[in-house]
Structures are given as structure tokens and as C-alpha cells.
Amino acid sequence: MTETTSGSARGAGRSRPGKGLRIERVYTTPGVHPYDEVVWERRDVVMTNWRDGSINFEQRGVEFPDSWSVNAVNIVTSKYFRGAVGTPQREWSLKQLIDRVVKTYRKSGEENGYFAGPADAEIFEHELAYALLHQIFSFNSPVWFNVGTAQKQQVSACFILSVDDSMDSILDWYKEEGLIFKGGSGAGLNLSRIRSSKELLTSGGNASGPVSFMRGADASAGTIKSGGATRRAAKMVVLDVDHPDIEDFIDTKVKEEEKIRALRDAGFDMDLGGADIASVQYQNANNSVRVSDEFMNAVEQGKEFGLRARLTGDVLETVDAKKLFRRMAEAAWACADPGIQYDDEINKWHTCPESGRITASNPCSEYMHLDNSSCNLASLNLMKFLREDDTFDAVNFAKVVELVITAMDISICFADFPTEKIGETTRAFRQLGIGYANLGALLMATGHAYDSDGGRALAGAITSLMTGTAYKRSAELAAIVGAYEGYARNAEPHKRVMRQHADANDTGKRMDDLDTPVWELATKAWKDVAKLGDKHGFRNAQASVLAPTGTIGLMMDCDTTGVEPDLALVKFKKLVGGGSMQIVNGTVARALARLGYQPEQVEAIVEHIAEHGHVVDAPGLKTEHYEVFDCAMGERTISPMGHVRMMAAIQPWISGAISKTVNMSEDATVEEIEEIYFQGWKLGIKALAIYRDNCKVGQPLSAGKGENKGKADDGKATAATVVEKVVEYRPVRKRLPKGRPGITTSFSVGGAEGYMTANSYPDDGLGEVFLKMSKQGSTLAGMMDAFSIAVSVGLQYGVPLETYVSKFTNMRFEPAGLTDDPDVRMAQSIVDYIFRRLALDHLPFETRSALGIHSAAERTRHLETGSYEPDEPAAAEDMRTLAQSAPTEAAPKAPDLKPVPAAVHSSTELLEARQGRSADAPLCFSCGIKMRPAGSCYVCEGCGSTSGCS
Where are the domains of the chain? Predict the structure, then answer.
């Protein structure tokens, strides 16, 4: 994307001769500003908390491209526009926001000698603006919050602190962490330098130990709302596995979870954000144990392992490594903490070991570098590089990486930092964190299963190309404005790590026509890295991470965040002008076309998914292709090891690490968690965490979630044992009156004939059903009588008809086939037909439409107008505006749209409604809707709020 030319430059506060970048146009046209190439429209943004109807945010008349979705517009307007709402100073157009950021980057780049001349600076500005405008990439949230404003120009979202074994250092820790939380970011640190409670102070008394000091920091984090917002602060606390207090550290959250359960059962409000949850400790941090190869080898071999004094290094006691490892797994089974970080693997890839070891990470575990440092992030939207012929545009992807890395490095020149120590380290090492989002969507769209060799090969190739290109640009920048200050001391280890990346690229598995060209370009990039790095050094000590991309992923209209797979095949979508629909992912149709299905087959499969939410038994879909459509949740889910294998497939080309939680089902065992942690070490992952569904009490979940098992696999009670209140409830049967209205329907299913009589309460819906088939006294007649009585009694005891409909429709057995009913032309069984007919006769349109049941007239209307609902101007307008705001990627067929139930406000809640069970995710503090997973955090689809990551 760039060339270099002779000139003068100033970098990192010092003048030196160098070269300036000549910038090549990729997307823009000479003489045409990117803003003039899109259609702009005005919209009103009104965001409410659906639980109490209160308005959280309102700004009318904002200006955005017509291709931007409602969610993206809402999130950017409410979170990133600066100035008091209702004042002339308030930003109201995306143009103002992008200009505020991009012009600041251009000005700093010119002042610090990055460009060959004004023309190149202008091209840089236009290309950056184009990429942001078209959602090709996004900077992390602090850039949007701060850059170009009168406040401090903080650009980093990730921080690592340090604490030593002194009271002054511990108090500095509290203060520095508080300042970072106040600014809306998170921090992590390792407490292993602090003496254990089993060691003596110089005064003769026993030390308090790190777990004790964690209480004070936890209280501080719970008090300082992150960035003045309602969400809790994000923090990571790490302790080395050889610390004498490691067992207390492992048990901290397990004991508090017991307390939560006891207080909840006593009637206290222990939901996340509840009035009484503040009485529980250690809830504001993610905890991780830093394990060594020595410890993991001891686990593998069943040996003893020594816990060492902090000051002398002497072994204070020995423990059974296997038992300690199991204790970690039991704690994670009970409350999801601690996670695990693999110390030797992390430091094996450390570019600057002469300046200190890597001891900790940021809260989401993707940034890992020196203590008292920070990292600014940016993520690319991978779906923007998928061509219409379903090949990956590796050339333009690499050019955008060069552009973004250049901008990220420029930002360090003008950035402010929360503490002077962090500022000094960051300016000296210039750590960057480029990454991507929408990997799950890309893999599905190209016909790859997330858990497949082909999927991992494509992901690995893209990751290698990204990081190789980033370091290549870093070496080019070093030729212009100088290598990072710490490079001279760390030149050899830095170049060694570059060789490790390149060697891993050479052995990367090539699978098909999609990944092979990407690998080839990555190979060339790594060769350039070696050549340019030897000559000029590197501008940045770190280049890439894989962050959660929660809020910015929604800003870019990504279907999937970070490295995550798709949540489900059917999504919740807001419409311009109000209202919402459920929509089958556009990537589904694209994947089916890539797999060779004809348009009419694609249409039938998409219709099946729209009705059922999954691909099982979809007409014409080969069973070997089911795995392509496996998701994080739903009928077919990706196995926990599938997530781990994907992490292992891309880790060799990530400078830092990967923010990802391995989700496990509620019935997962302690042994399975042990295996996940063990395989993470074997496969060369740097860090991971697990989450077992419904293992936590202290978060708000909708009614109906499963109970915790309360026992480990060996049958012994654990700290997660549940003591539930028993509330006896006896339903009352409501009998029908002597005279009641009814409908008798004759039917034929697959040649088998019968009659159904459905009687109703005079004013309150269906009350009984009678079915007659075959001769009196036959087995079939007797079973139909018994079935009718069971259903009728259930209806009279209050079982909703829609419950029966959701359970019995799509049940398959003979006789099946064509019917004589124009509203239900095909039935998979007699029971399937009966309950479709009952739904059409007795359920309101919204309820049965959510279940995918429509009359012949409604289906005809859908073909003509795109809507099942009666013709209304508002509905037609919604459909037109939806078409205007649809994603720009081509697909063989527009996704199928259906109304959503009134109580559904997010994709997670839609999945709950389809599955009939609760998803284990917290509620958004601002909107009150269910959040969705994003890396090791959660993000709200409604307002972009996160549960901890920026």
C-alpha cells in the first residue's frame, strides 16, 4: 500500500533523518471525498429500558449512511458522539465523529514525519475515513471517546499494572487502578510478588497475603463505576501457581458463591446489580492462575510440586500437583473462576524479555506484555474482504492492515495515559493490538465448519497474514521514524520471535482454494519481516491481539465478535422506523450456494431454518453439511474442544493472546474442565477460561433456567451445592360449561382420514379436543382417545395451547404427507397436522407467526409483499427501510423475515424463545435485555454496553 521516500522526520519526541510514507489509494478516488460516495439520511435515536419504559437516551435528526443498521446508529450516537445532548456543541453526524478522529491522526502523522508530503497525508486521511465509514474496521472505544476532544487523548483500552511487596506499592495499585476505571478502561496485574500469609514480616508478625489485599481492591472496583457508567469496572488478578496462598486464591470465589446462595435463599436480592450483592467479595475481577511447564509436567506425571516463599524462593510446602490442578477445575466448575494462563508459553513468544518478564494480562486476557504498559486496539471486519465469488481478498486485507497499523502507531505520539509509569513504558515499547471480528460469519459464508480443518486453515492463514503484514509495516515505520526505544536491548529476542512466527507459517496446514492464496501472501510478508527487521528493527514491540470486539463489533454491523462462532442461525433485527423482525443469517444462503445447492434448494432450507431455528431435517440438506451451520448455542452446538482447537489454530500468529471463554453445558464434569485446561497447555494456547452454564447465581436470568447440579462428577458435594426453597403450587382445573362453542374439522393426512372436535370456553380460548380415527375399539382409536383426554385435561389446568403447539408440531411418523387442508398442505404426522390446525384456529397471529405457522392467505401475502401481516402502510414502510439498511454483501437470496414475539429484544432472547429455555447471560444495566457473549465478556445488542471490555 505504501512506498518510502527520502525526507525528514521526527519520531517519539526526537528529530532524525528518515523517509516518509507514500500512500497508495485503495478504496478512494482522486478528487472525490469518501463522504460524497454514500447516501446519507437523518434518523431519530430513542433508546429505552423495555422493563420500565424509561428513556435512556434520545437524540433526533442524526445523520448516517443509509446502509448502517439501526443498532449501529444507536450505539454510535449514544456512546461516541461528544457534547451535551440538546446543545449546539453536540455532535449529530457520523461525518463529525470520523473527522474528529481522522483529522487528529493526520495532523499528528504530519507533525511527526510519517508522510512524504501533504498529498500522501490527504490520501491517508481519505482512506482511513473510507474504511471507517464503510465499517471495514474500527478503533477501540477510547479512541472514539477521547480523540479530538478537549479531554485527555487516551487511546488505549488495555492496561497492565504492577505491585511489589510493600504497602506503598499496594496503595499505589489501588490508586492507579481507580484512575483507569474512572476513565472507562480495565487493568490486570499479578500479585505474586506479595508475601504469602505463611511468611513473616520484618516486624515479626505474619504477612496479610495477596488474597487479603484483593478485598480492598475489589471494594474499590465495585465503588468506582467504569467511566461514570453503570457497568462494573473490568479487572484481572493473576497469581502464580507456586505462591503459598494459591489454594486460598483458587477458593475465593467458590466461598463467595456459597454466600450468594445462602443470602439469596434467605430473601436477599443477590442478582448482579441487586441491592445486596455488594456484601459479597471478589466479584469485580476475573481471576487466573499462572501455571508453569514445571507444574503442568508434574500434573502429567503425578508428582509433588513446591510452593515457594516470595522473598527467598525456598520451598515452604509441597503439594500433590494433580490435586491442586483438580482443585482449580472444581472451582471453575462451581463459579467459572479461576481461568488459566500458561507462563512459559507466554514468555516463549515475548519480544522484550531483557526488559522484564510478562507476568499478567489485561482483564480479557488478550493483551500480554510488560508491567505498567498499555495497548490500543483496532479490529478489521473480515466479511468486508469476502468477494462476491466467495474468495478472500487477501491483497486489500493486507493493505488495510498497513493503513490501520500506521494510524495506531501515530496515536501513541499524541496519546495521554492514566499514570506516568504507563506512559513511559508505552512510549518506549509502542505496543499495538490489531485484530479482527466476524471470523465465525466468514467461515460459515465460505462453507467451512467452525470446528473443521478447513475452517482452522483459513483462520490461521488470515491471522498469519495480518500479523506478518503488521510487523512488516512496523519495520517500514522503523526506517522512517525509528525503532522503539527498547528495541536495541531486545533486538535478538525480538527477531527470534519473528522467526518463530515465520516457521509456524511455513508449517501451517493448507487445505483448499480459499486458504492457499492467503498462506502464500503471508509467507511473502514474513520474508519481508525478516529482511526489513534485520535492516531497520521494528517500531512496535507488539502488533496483534484478538479482542472481544463487543461494542465496536456492533458498530461495524458484525454478525460475530472476535474469534467467536455465530450465536445462532436466526437473529433479532431492529427495523428503521421502529419494530423488529427475526431474520435468518445472510451467511446461511451464501454458505449453501458455496456448498453447491441450487437456488430452489437454498430457498427451502432457509425457510426450514426460519421456521425451526436449525438445519436438522432441512429438506435436501446433506447431513455432512450440518456441521457448517453449528453455532455457539441452539440445536447443534460446537463442542468445547472445538473452541480450543480454533484458538490453537491461530495462536502462533498472535503477538498477544485471544480473548475467549470456552462455554460448556451445565452437565459438564470437573474431569472435562481438567481436560480443557490440560489440552490448552498441550496445544500451545497462552490463556483460556471456561464457563459452565448456570454455574453462577449472582446474575439476573430469565425464569426457567436450569438448576445447578451441585455435585462434582465423583458424587461429592462441592461449594456449588444448591439449597432451594420448596414452594408448593397446585393448579386449579377450570372445567368447561355444559354448553360450549366448538369446531369440528374433517382431515386427511397421507391418506388416513379422521375428525377433530375442538371446544372452547365462551370467552377464554380452547378447553378440550376430541379426535376420532379408525374403528371403535382399535388400538389407534384408543390411543387417540387417551391423547385427547391428556391434552384436554392439560388445557383445563392452564397449560397454554402454544406450549402444545411448540412441542408437537414437526413430530415425524407415519402416516404423513399431503393433506386436504389448503392452510396445511403437508404434515409430518397426524399430530403435526392437528396442532398446526389448532394454532391457526385458536392462537393470535403474533403467537403462531413466531412459531412459523401461517395460513394459505398469509403465505400468499408474504410472497407478494414480503410480510405475513395484513397490509398496512407502516409494515410496508418497515420492509422498504429494512431493505435500505441491509448489509452490502451479496447473497443468493434475501434472508427470510418473520415477526418476533413481543417479549423478545435481542438475539439471545430470540434463541431463548425458540429453545424454550433460558440462556445463561446477564441483563444489560441500561436496556434490561439479555446480552450476548463477546470473548470473555458480554455485549448488549441494544445499546452496545459491555460487561467489562471496552
Answer: 2-147+360-552, 162-355, 742-897
Instruction: Record the pTM.
Output: 0.78
Catalytic-role residue among 366, 564, 768, 941 = 366
Question: Within 10 A of 797 (CB to CB), how many other CB atoms are there?
Answer: 12
Buried b (16+ CB within 10 A) or exposed e, 256-282: bbbbbbebbeeebebbbbbeebeebbb
**Known active-site residue 476:** no
Which residue bears the cell 404423513?
A: 816
Which DSSP category does 946 fall into?
B
**Distance in angstroms (rounded) separating the CA atoms of residues 621 and 856:** 25
**CA gap 816, 831 in Å, rounded:** 10
- pLDDT, block means (10 residues), the chain with 950 residues: 43 50 95 96 86 81 94 92 94 98 98 96 98 97 93 92 94 90 84 93 82 83 54 80 97 86 77 68 86 98 96 95 98 93 98 98 95 96 96 98 98 95 97 97 96 98 98 98 98 98 97 96 98 98 94 90 90 66 82 94 91 91 96 89 97 97 91 97 96 69 35 39 42 78 87 87 83 79 86 87 86 84 85 90 83 82 72 42 38 48 65 60 68 73 65
Report how far apart the first and last C-alpha atoms of the chain are (Å, whole number). 30
Residue 624, Cβ density class (10 Å: 0-12 exposed, 13-18 middle, ≥19 buried) = exposed
How many angstroms separate the CA atoms of 882 and 904, rounded?
A: 19
Q: At what angle do helices 453-481 and 394-414 cross, to 10 degrees?
A: 50
Quote the CA–CA distance of 149 and 156 in Å, as a whole number.
Answer: 15
Check 286, 362, 438, 663 and give the catalytic one.
Answer: 362
The cell for 643 is 473452541
Q: Write phi, then psi, for 896 (nearest 5 degrees).
A: -75, 135
Interatomic CA distance for residues 448 and 436, integer angstroms: 18
Closest by alpha carbon to 478, among 532, 427, 434? Answer: 532
pLDDT of residue 740: 82
Q: Is 362 designated active site?
A: yes
Q: Which among 508, 181, 536, 204 has a CA at the least distance from the CA of 362?
A: 181
- Give the angle subtended at the CA of 692 by the CAs of 691 and 698, to the nearest 5°: 80
The cell numbers describing 283, all together, are: 466479584
- Residue 107 makes CB contacts below 8 A (sequence gap 6+) with none
Q: Which residue type, as a one-letter code, is found at position 307?
A: L
Looking at beta carbons, which pairs linking 212-216 to residues 24 or more positions away fall under 8 Å? 213/170, 214/252, 214/282, 214/285, 215/281, 215/282, 216/174
User: Residue 103: its pLDDT value, please?
Assistant: 98
In angstroms, the CA 454 to CA 94 distance is: 38
**What is the rounded CA–CA span in Å between residue 541 and residue 472?**
13
Are 560 and 437 in contact by the 8 Å Cβ rule? The answer is: yes
How far apart are the C-alpha atoms of 278 and 292, rounded to whole Å? 34
Distance CA 140, CA 377 (A): 5
Q: Identify the pLDDT of residue 728.
A: 45
Angle between helices 640-650 and 453-481 (to 10 degrees): 30
Q: Which of 158, 352, 364, 924 is catalytic?
A: 364
Q: How far apart are CA 490 and CA 471, in angstroms?
A: 15
Q: Which helix (H) or strand (E) holds 413?
A: helix 394-414
Q: Note whether 743 and 757 are within 8 A (CB).
A: yes
3-state secondary structure (DSSP) of residue 638: coil
Q: Which fold has domain 162-355?
A: Anaerobic Ribonucleotide-triphosphate Reductase Large Chain (3.20.70)
- Which three-class secondary structure string do you get for 792-812? HHHHHCCCCHHHHHHHHCCCC
- DSSP-H helix ranges across 56-93: 70-75
Query: What is the rounded distance in angstroms from the CA atom of residue 559 to the CA atom of residue 588?
Result: 12
Torsion of CA 868, 869, 871, 872, to 10 degrees: -140
Is 864 annotated in the active site?
no
How far apart are alpha carbons 946 and 922 in whole angstroms? 10
